Amino acid sequence: MSAPSLDAFIAYSVSTSTPTVLITSGGTSVPLESNTVRTLENFSTGTRGSSSAELFLKRGYRVIFMHRAGSKLPFLRLIPSPTNVTPELASLIKDCPNPSVKNPISTFTSHLPNLYLLPFTTITSFLTSLESTLKSLSPLSSLSMYYGAAAVSDFYLKNMPEHKIQSTVEGRRINKEDGGGGGKGFKLELDDVPKMLGEVKVWCPGVFLCGFKLETDETILTSKVERSIEKYGLDCVVGNVLSTRYEVCYLYDGGGVEEVRGDVEGGIVEGVVRRHMEYVSREGGGVRLRKEGGGKKERDERIWREMEGWKKGIFWAWESLGPVIGVALVYYIRRRKW
């Protein structure tokens, strides 16, 4: 069975009023030649994006996972392997009896009806795909979310040479690629990548916009986040410092800051989902979260957490006394002479 188109995937979310999140993950590549040999890269492997996708799926969201080709994927990232496991490789090794291989593949497969994989490589393909996907999500309005965990390049080479940049001064002169080095090395002048955060709510009105801000200097993190919220209209920002990003993160929403420690990935998604549901409630959207398995114990615990005090008493009485009442009723019916 072939995978549904993106439009069909989103149409199902619309018809079922299911919250759907577009997660961007991994890093973008910046080519230095039209016939690309060399590129500028960053260190992102997609760990945070893929782990976040798992948590959103478990909370009943449908996920469009826009990822760097070859970066980590939800659940498959857990397979011990010298390279990131792709869906194609997973289909070949799905019958492996080793639980460390079999279980992640089984979990990945079970979530595929609610997971749409959308790969990108270059900064250009990323921006093109981002715009078209957000426009497709617009019918969901407040039920849609943009979760921008990808490490998007800040700079690119606007005027690329057609062929490979030569490694010698003589070669560059032949190709008329002096590069401004005056025969001593090679200089590139990079242009700023257009900031697209300000366009997100234009392409997808009503979307809940969650951005990420990574800094190496902790002293400027809060001020940079606050400026982004004001400039781009973000509803939530995940702020973190490079050296401690797996130990602590901060959730900003324009009204304060929440520190997340311990289970950082779980805390981030929990905080973002809570803010999104509050946003949906304010905007008047109806939500239908998928039930992520769970037996009677999980159901009772969930109901108990969500109940008001007096309702808990009724629920407890029914759950505790219901079986007794049932037995008494059966006994009465059997003993009664009609």
Summarize the structure in words.
The protein has about 350 residues and is α/β, with parallel strands linked by helices. It has two domains: about 5-155 and about 195-285, Rossmann fold (3-Layer(aba) Sandwich), CATH 3.40.50.10300; about 295-335, no CATH class. Helices cover about 40% and strands about 15% of the residues. It has helices at about 5-15, 45-60, 85-95, 100-110, 125-135, 170-175, 195-205, 220-230, 265-285, 295-305, 310-335, and strands at about 20-25, 30, 40, 60-70, 115-120, 145-150, 155, 190, 210-215, 235-240, 250, 255-260. The strands form three sheets. The chain has an eight-stranded mixed β-sheet with strand order 5-4-1-6-9-10-11-12, sandwiched between helices. It has a two-stranded antiparallel sheet with strand order 2-3. It has a two-stranded antiparallel sheet with strand order 7-8. Strand 10 and strand 11 (about 250) form a beta hairpin. Helix 2 packs across helix 9 (about 265-285). It is globular, with a radius of gyration of 25 Å. The protein starts with 5 loop residues before the first helix and ends with a helix. One of its GO terms (biological process) is coenzyme A biosynthetic process. Keywords: Membrane, Transmembrane, Transmembrane helix.
